[in-house]
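FORM 7B: Structural annotation worksheet

SECTION A. Query
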Amino acid sequence: MAAPCPTARRGASVPTRPVAPRARAGYIVRVLDVKDPTVQAALLRACEEAGLPAAYRGCVHPLLRDPEGEWPPCCGEGCLPCAATLADVAVRTLELLGTPRRSPVSSAGAS
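SECTION B. Predicted structure
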């Protein structure tokens, strides 16, 4: 039930920056503009829902810029913020933007 790649649809409303596109799996992927107010509002809401302090929002930006990339898994060492929490926030942010992640998120090392 995954939605098609958001940037492959015509008329996608997700704010992207006009940067050099990267080809991945037959799609042209544009970089999500993490400074856009719509993205920031969705990110703030996702942080609140996950209990991630707003000070760590910047840690989620790299994941949002590469929504179908390989995200680091939890190492199981009790880090703060945990990579799994950052991934959960990124996934929720993308859902709130109407562009859910299609690739599975690795859970290696999670306890």
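SECTION C. Observations
Confidence is low (pLDDT under 50) at residues 1-12, 18-24. Helices lie at 37-50, 61-65, 83-96.

SECTION D. Sign-off
Analyst initials: ____
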